[in-house]
Design brief:
The structure is a homodimer of 234-residue chains.
Chain A (H helix, E strand, L loop, with lengths): L14 H15 L7 E2 L1 H7 L4 H13 L3 E3 L5 E3 L4 H25 L2 H19 L4 H18 L6 H23 L7 H13 L3 H20 L3 H9 L1
Antiparallel strand pairs in A: 1-3, 2-3
Chain B binds a DNA duplex (30 and 30 nucleotides) through helix 2 and helix 3.
Chain lengths: 234, 234
DNA sequence: GAGTTTAAAAATCTCGAGAAAAGTTGTTGA
DNA sequence: TCAACAACTTTTCTCGAGATTTTTAAACTC
């Protein structure tokens, strides 16, 4: 089930997996623009694999809804739209709040410890949040923090779907962090989330998480259309 | 996004798609047993395609979580378990009830008409529900009825996830219909669901749908372990 | 000039064979 | 008897080339 998670980092033992990861990264980071055509014959050189291997990697990416394919007309990067992002944000609020409630209800001491640790790592990365490789580190730690938050939720399917939605949202979020029109202190939000979770205040934690996710959507929503389109085609 | 839906029936225009559908059908129907190893060299003859083509079809099935792959060890049919089915049922209750509420809130006259039509087609199939090709017809119409129920829900992601869960549940449900230990009148359940939806009684409809889904789980749960295992290995 | 038909070009889809890894079997040595 | 090792078999993974289909461009008619 978990081909989207990529937890620790079990080295890719196959070329398909390697190409899959590179492609996914390039799509999420925007190096491959939304709706861009993915010509196999051209891309196979860039990623240093054969045609069949690349096709297989692209097929894998369909699971994450980062690539779409159509009949006899090849592959494309999944298109983006504000409506889609709104849908992603709302669905994520619904699922992630429920998962968080379950996680708070069932989490044990070890979970709390993992949570504190994940928050600490994230906080350290937030202090020095300038530069691009630092940024990747922050992205990684932010993902893990959210992952640990719901780790004690027993539903594998809920977590599976959230993993997909998280990566989808990340693609959009990459925009809002660079050109951020709504002022916000993400660190404070995460801190409040941490304390509410540790104190087992499920309603409060869910409310904070909900706001946290929706704020990111409103951030992108507030970006002027021209500026956004320029970004999206980049 | 919708590689799992297969709505009307746009003829498979490619061998990959064709193999994908045949494989999915065989997995859901249980012709390919849970956890069974899927050897490419052996299967390519059965489905009349090349090795690369079959690999691609298998990669596509990972999106539906009907196939799992592992490093350098090939593909397997996704395993099954009672715990997994419970998770599927509960997650489905959560998502499908929410989708149904939204659908009831937003559905227009055309939606009502589609719903009545879908129910009628399902009812006709229920009358003559004996024989195996009749059974396939019932399965198809049951799926469409559930699909139409939530069709007016505006969230594409919710519907996408539900489509995945539906096919997962179908695999388990195939068991409970044959050896049905809990007596139930599915027709009455569907009818109550239809009327609650048309009358815009969201709470009532959600309650019925919730019971409807959970009853299927309890049906499988009530099957004696030996009998179930025999089925699962078949 | 607009729209249709025809032909060339590009891209997709498909296959079978070769390299690499995993799994199996049998043998050897304590 | 058991474990470790080695040779063999099976299977997965990978690639490049050929067959179809789509796309592009040009030529032609109305």
């Amino acid at each position: 089930m978990n081909n989207t998670a990529v937890e620790g980092l079990p080295e890719p033992k196959t070329l398909v997996e390697s190409a899959y990861r590179s492609l996914r990264r390039d799509i999420i980071e925007g190096n491959l623009a939304p709706d861009e055509k993915l010509r196999v014959e051209h891309l196979k050189d860039n990623y240093g694999v054969g045609a069949g291997t690349l096709r297989e990697a692209l097929s894998l990416l369909i699971a994450d809804a980062l690539v779409v394919s159509q009949g006899q007309r090849g592959f494309r990067v999944a298109p983006v739209s504000l409506a889609d992002f709104e849908d992603i944000a709302q669905t994520r609020v619904m699922l992630e709040c429920e998962a968080l409630r379950q996680s708070i209800a069932m989490g044990d001491d070890a979970w709390e410890a993992d949570l504190v640790a994940a928050f600490h790592r994230l906080a350290k990365a937030e202090e020095k949040r300038i530069g691009s490789e630092i940024r990747e580190e922050w992205e990684e730690r932010n993902r893990i923090f959210h992952e640990v938050l719901i780790a004690a939720c027993p539903s594998r399917w809920l977590k599976h779907f959230l993993s997909i939605l998280y990566h989808q949202a990340e693609r959009y979020r990459r925009l809002s962090l660079y050109l951020q029109p709504i002022p916000r202190d993400i660190h404070v939000e995460h801190e409040a989330l941490l304390h509410a979770a540790i104190n087992r205040e499920a309603d409060k934690a869910a409310a904070i998480l909900s706001e946290h996710i929706l704020l990111t959507f409103r951030s992108v929503q507030a970006i002027p259309a021209e500026q956004l389109n320029a970004k999206l085609q980049a």
